[in-house]
Design brief:
Elements (H helix, E strand, L loop, with lengths): L1 H15 L9 E2 L9 E3 L1 H9 L3 H11 L7 E7 L3 E6 L1 H14 L13 E5 L13 H17 L3 E8 L4 H17 L14 H14 L8 H22 L6 E4 L1 H5 L2 H11 L3 E4 L2 E4 L10 E4 L8 H13 L4 E7 L5 H11 L7 E6 L2 E5 L2 E3 L11 H8 L1 H8 L8 E4 H5 L6 H21 L18 H11 L1 H10 L4 H20 L9 H23 L8
Parallel strand pairs: 5-6, 5-11, 6-7, 11-12, 13-15
Antiparallel strand pairs: 1-2, 2-4, 3-4, 8-9, 9-10, 13-14
Helix pairs in contact: 2-3, 4-17, 5-14, 5-18, 6-7, 6-8, 7-8, 11-12, 13-14, 16-19, 16-20, 17-19, 17-20, 18-19, 19-20
The protein binds one RNA strand through helix 2, strand 9, strand 10, helix 16 and helix 19.
Amino acid sequence: MEEYLQPIFSEVVGTVAPEFSGAIQFETPQNPDHGDLSTNIAMLLAKELKKAPRILANEIVEKLRKDSEVIEGVEIAGPGFINIRFSRKYFQDALGAILSLGNAYGHSRKYEGMMTNLEWVSANPTGNLHAGHGRQVCLGAAIANLLEWTGYKVIREYYFNNAGNQMRNLARSTQVRYLQELGQEISLPEEGYHGAEIIGIAKELVLKFGDSLQNAEQSDFQKFAEEANFLRIKNTLTRLGIHHDIYFNENTLYESGAIEKIIAELKEKDLAYEKDGAVWLKLSEMGQEQDRVIVKSTGEPTYRLPDICYHKDKLSRGYDLVIDIFGADHIATIPDVLAALKALGFDSGKVKVVIHQMVTFLSGTEVIKFSKRSGSNYLLDELIDDVGADATKFFFNMRAVGSHLEFDVELAKEQSEKNPVYYVQYAHARIASILRFAQQQEINIQMLTKADLTVLVHPEEISLIKILHRFPSLILQTAEAFAPHHICEYLRQVAAQFHKFYHDCRMVGQPEPVQSARLALALATKQVLASGCSILGVTAPESM
RNA sequence: GUGCCCGUAGCUCAGUUGGAUAGAGCAUCAGCCUUCUAAGCUGAGGGUCGUUGGUUCGAGUCCAACCGGGCACACCA
């Protein structure tokens, strides 16, 4: 709609206000009585032209060269809004386009030829994914899908954090658990990993190797634990249908000498200095609050250094966009990394960081507590067991990333009308069922895409087409904002409008061409529901 | 104390780059199935958009201060 209006409005505005530059804004009014699209251009121009907004609006409307087949009406309203109403034919044609595009409907070529790297999950291989990880896991997967819909080639990456203290801790914890399994009186260090999965790994080691590892090196235990944990993490991701193209090992940064190199580079560019036996990054000269240590006096880097090094690596690979997804608890590290990259001469503007707020799990009204240390954590696997993969993915994407998320496990589990996942899926299954029924009545489903759509004039039919028509611009907007929660809300709207249409407009058994036209509308709705669900990774069932 | 996020209906939350009478789901109440899936539909009630100022034709949205909640502020990752 906007693409149609933009040029004809620009033309008129060009004659009325030649100095005006910039895009004319159109928006969908909240109140449908105000038309399909509305612009405030007359109000914006009123001031500099020193004319009353309504008079100016009148001038613009009179000069508008519009096709009456497309535009049904243009009205001036309120303080000077210009409201535009599109014709039935416009929407009927739009539905025809949806049907002929089929699966491709909603895909955009805006970012065709561009490549983005999205890195997410990246949980340390020190244990299983816990339920709280779920938000990041599902959010990243949806954003990756969304970006593909806009034309990006998306590289999905997992940063495998297998260096440093935590891994030594994991190694030691595994070793202790192993020795405990062999009956030795030895206790886990205070800061060790108390999770049950480490005991599981120890048991496996006993089964596999008996007591032959009693004198094994700690690094052997690290290798075993790392592999076992990573396998579990991957299994959990697989249950959600999520895969990564690249698994980037942190320790390759050390093995390749990249860490040494970047320290040298930072020193050489006078961005780092030595003090008290440690190497400090001059963050205070990069617009940050204070300098920070990047290499401890023990000679070991802090997390900042590999983070900077890793991002440098990603930027060097030539992506047009590098996306990180972090929980709010990692927020502190980001400005430092970006500042350092900028100081090293990289375009840090290419790095987009999506930060999501934390999650509270509820069972009804009761908060489910979990803590990694105590070992009584609620695992993502358990959450999937409880509510299923579809509800997991839908619920984690239901809220804006900046909002704290309350995940009601009882609600997600419930297979009822209260549960928004089933509401959306039910609409899809309902359409599938109707189409099956239609087929039994000897109606040719393949021919529906060629149906005569001019008989679609019922208000609920037009409303449904209008919603379906919004899909492509919704995808773009949602992708550019990294905000998949709009998809959830949109799917709910599509489902709701389909149910209204279903209620008012019988399909099968209507005289032709109404029967075919309505079934075609149902088919298009099914298509959009399935596409939207696929972005979230949620299945669109053929029956329920 | 400093930084980031949040404060909208009883509850959980939407609210496009500032727009017209602030929305949805759940919960509550009242209706609708001999006909394509009632896991559905229709209607009703429910609000000082945390508070106070400011910016302007116009503020839930932008700015400032304050109040309340979350997260983060290591030579931990």
